[in-house]
Here is the input.
Amino acid sequence: MAAPRIPIDVDPQTGQWSTDSLPMLYVPVHFFVNNHLAIENELGIERYAKLLYDAGYTSAWTWCEHESKVHHLQGVEVFAHYMNRLSQRGWGTFTIRDLDLPSATAAIEVRHSVFHRPDEAGTRSGDYMFTGWFAGALDFILSEAGDPRRTHAHQVFHEGETDAPYGLFRVGPV
Here is the structure.
């Protein structure tokens, strides 16, 4: 993948990074993953996953709302833009395998996840962090279309699980 094609503005006085007027952080992967694992170990996977789901859902909705206005995007374009930006920012390579607004469903493939460690193939993954992101993004575009339905996302399997070359997530109506 080429260098990100996203604008990164740096405030000369504060050093704060931003893209499309949203503040951003740039941190080493090991720093983020080590913090993620420490919190997971303290709270347990189920509790931490629930907290991340809710926070990620809200954050994805907010991001999609902002980006749809900044880039004049609607519907599926917003979701595709979100998957592209996640990929460009190093979370993994996100591919929409299926997106059907009339049925409020989606399937997303994730390769090269920030949480995938090939030396630990088959073990659990922190990819559950992404689930709320997918539902929040889909629910935003449903809402913008006047559709009151809400969705829920779940991880079907993660990259490396039973030698899977990618992780798979599904989103569907609640």
Summary: The chain has four helices and seven strands.
